[in-house]
């Protein structure tokens, strides 16, 4: 499955199938939360959170691709990622785009 953040794919004529999305709500665990609070004192990357969000993006992308494949899509164009806090200690990661079929 081709996924791009542009509204076209060079050399391809596209038929729009519709909006597709994938999302996940991921929460922190007490160990990550405790260790990250120490890290904020000295600064730098909080690797456990980076890893958690990378995993969440991968799961959300997989869910979007599954939805696109169910529609018979060959690709997803104009893909966008977003995240937001849904409650204390939990964040949603969503990816969305337009499912297309090659003509």
UniProtKB/TrEMBL annotation:
* Residues in coiled coil: none
Which Pfam families did the record assign?
YbjQ_1
For this chain, the family text in UniProt reads:
Belongs to the UPF0145 family.
Q: What is this protein called?
A: UPF0145 protein HNR50_000700
């Amino acid at each position: 499955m081709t996924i791009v953040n542009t509204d076209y794919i060079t050399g391809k004529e596209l038929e729009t199938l519709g909006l597709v999305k994938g999302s996940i709500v991921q929460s922190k665990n007490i160990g990550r939360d405790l260790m990250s609070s120490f890290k904020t004192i000295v600064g730098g990357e909080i690797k456990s959170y980076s890893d958690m969000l990378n995993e969440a993006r991968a799961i959300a992308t997989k869910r979007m691709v599954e939805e696109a494949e169910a529609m018979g899509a060959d690709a997803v164009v104009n893909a966008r990622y977003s995240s937001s806090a849904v409650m204390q200690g939990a964040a949603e990661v969503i990816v969305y785009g337009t499912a297309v079929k090659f003509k």
